[in-house]
Amino acid sequence: MFQAAAIDIENKAEFYRQLAQQLQGLLEGERDMIANAANTSAVMFQMIPDLNWAGFYILRGDELVLGPFQGKPACVRIPVGRGVCGTAVREGTSILVKDVHTFSGHIACDAASRSELVVPVRNGNDIIGVMDLHSPLPSRFDTDHQVGIERLAQIFTAATTF
Ligand code: SME
Questions:
Q1: For residue 110, which atom of ligand 1 is closest to its CA?
Q2: Closest protein CA for atom 5 of ligand 1
Q3: Contact 136/50 with Cβ under 8 angstroms?
């Protein structure tokens, strides 16, 4: 069973290496997308300090639809190209937002959010959704977090049948 072992966030590369290992262990033996997305959200929310939201949006046609998450209730549908999440899908790239108030078109679901990190989730070459993390602190995420979360996204897709 998953143990919330204390891991050192000061050394982010090592922190995310251990988190990746824990997630891999947790998802082992289960290939259901909803179950794995739910547990991935829970691991991120429990283990990464200073988050107020962590979860998934799944691509359905030309819209992102809210998936498993931890945090306050959120907007359900985001068209591709809209908000941080829809822009990440359109551009096919992760987006780090140091201050959500300066991102034109940002969609505010939780007024407490100040910074945000959105990472595309890929099944092979296809984007099948995004992982979205929010912090109430400005500039909470940097490229170390981005690389770490991108690794978690790979572990999630490798463990899951779509
Ligand atoms: N801020 C996101 C919307 C999703 S949530 O806030 C959970 C965006 O701009 O795409």
A1: 6
A2: 109
A3: yes
**Residue ranges covered by each domain of the chain:** 12-159
Q: Which residues lie with the beta carbon below 6 Å from any ligand 1 atom?
A: 53, 74-75, 78, 83-85, 106-107, 109, 116, 132
Indicate the pTM of the whole model. 0.94
CB 118 within 8 A of CB 89: no
- The residues, any chain, with a CB within 8 Å of residue 160's CB and separated by 6 or more, are 27, 31, 32, 33, 36, 37
Is residue 51 within 8 Å of residue 134, measured between CB atoms? yes
For residues 25 and 125, what is the distance between their CA atoms, to the nearest angstrom?
25
Which two three-digit tokens encode residue 126? 């296809």
Nearest to 104 by CA among 86, 121, 131, 122: 86
Quick one: CATH architecture of 12-159? 2-Layer Sandwich (3.30)
Q: Which stretches of 61-109 are assigned E, i.e. beta strand?
A: 63-71, 77-79, 95-97
The 10s digit of each residue's pLDDT in 55-93 is: 999 999 999 999 999 999 999 999 999 999 999 999 999
